[in-house]
Design a protein that fits this description.
The structure holds 2 protein chains of 2 kinds. By secondary structure, chain A is an all-beta fold. Chain A contains no helices and 11 strands. In chain A, strands 2, 4, 5, 6, 9, 10 and 11 form a 7-stranded mixed beta sheet that branches. In chain A, strand 4 and strand 5 form a beta hairpin. Chain A starts with a strand and ends with a strand. Chain B has no helices and 11 strands. Chain B starts with a strand and ends with a strand. Chain B is mostly beta strands. Chains A and B meet through strand 5, strand 9 and strand 10 of A and strand 4, strand 5, strand 9 and strand 10 of B.
């Protein structure tokens, strides 16, 4: 199984600032994803992080707000830009290895915007 | 819009009973199906995966898949208070748009 590490695990951010979340996987994976889980809600896919190219964003999410990088097979970052209280959520990195039979999640980054 | 629907819950069962969690999905091209457990304040934890029609058993957990009916379920036998959590059904889409879509989750409470 893959172990996914995220940091920061928790942060309190000021309105209007930006925060970058890092995701590191302990083995090479084929696909990496970023999800958001707002309070009391299920997981919503933000984007698929593509190695060496622009991420593929889901409807309702844009690159200017959520820039994503994936410079190699095991590392990705998500930036939440110009934060507002509505961005207070858990942000989860996930990854799947070859064959896509199992999808793993990191422990999540819990962001509170004040 | 590819959707995954779950019982709204909450579902409450007595300790030792069977808990039954249900999920339907809209994308007939879906290939893989997962059940995740999420404790309050924690990230989702994969507990079962199923890829073909029929039943798959793992300890006290049984996943059931019926692709013709676009239906997947999770049975938890001999439910324990430690099973109290939100259970998320997730569906892996096929075709060229690989992604995992989650249902809203069902909150299960097992009463001692």
């Amino acid at each position: 199984s893959a172990v996914i590490s995220q940091k920061p695990s928790r942060d309190i951010c000021q309105r209007g600032t930006s925060l970058t979340i890092q995701c590191q996987v302990d083995s090479q994976v084929t696909m990496m994803f970023w999800y958001r889980q707002q309070p009391g809600q299920s997981l919503t896919l933000i984007a698929t992080a593509n190695q060496g190219s622009e991420a593929t964003y889901e409807s309702g999410f844009v690159i200017d707000k959520f820039p994503i990088s994936r410079p190699n097979l095991t590392f990705s970052t998500l930036t939440v830009s110009n934060m507002s209280p509505e961005d207070s959520s858990i942000y989860l990195c996930s990854a799947t290895a070859e064959g896509r039979n199992t999808i793993y999640f990191g422990e999540g980054s819990w962001l509170t915007v004040v | 819009q590819k959707e995954v629907e779950q019982n709204s819950g909450p579902l409450s069962v007595p300790e030792g009973a069977i808990a039954s969690l249900n999920c339907t999905y809209s994308d007939r091209g879906s290939q893989s199906f997962f059940w995740y457990r999420q404790y309050s304040g924690k990230s989702p934890e994969l507990i079962m995966s199923i890829y073909s029609n029929g039943d798959k058993e793992d300890g006290r957990f049984t996943a059931q898949l019926n692709k013709a009916s676009q239906y997947v379920s999770l049975l938890i036998r001999d439910s324990q208070p430690s099973d109290s959590a939100t259970y998320l059904c997730a569906v892996w889409s096929g075709g060229s748009n690989y992604k995992l879509t989650f249902g809203k989750g069902t909150l299960l409470t097992v009463n001692p």
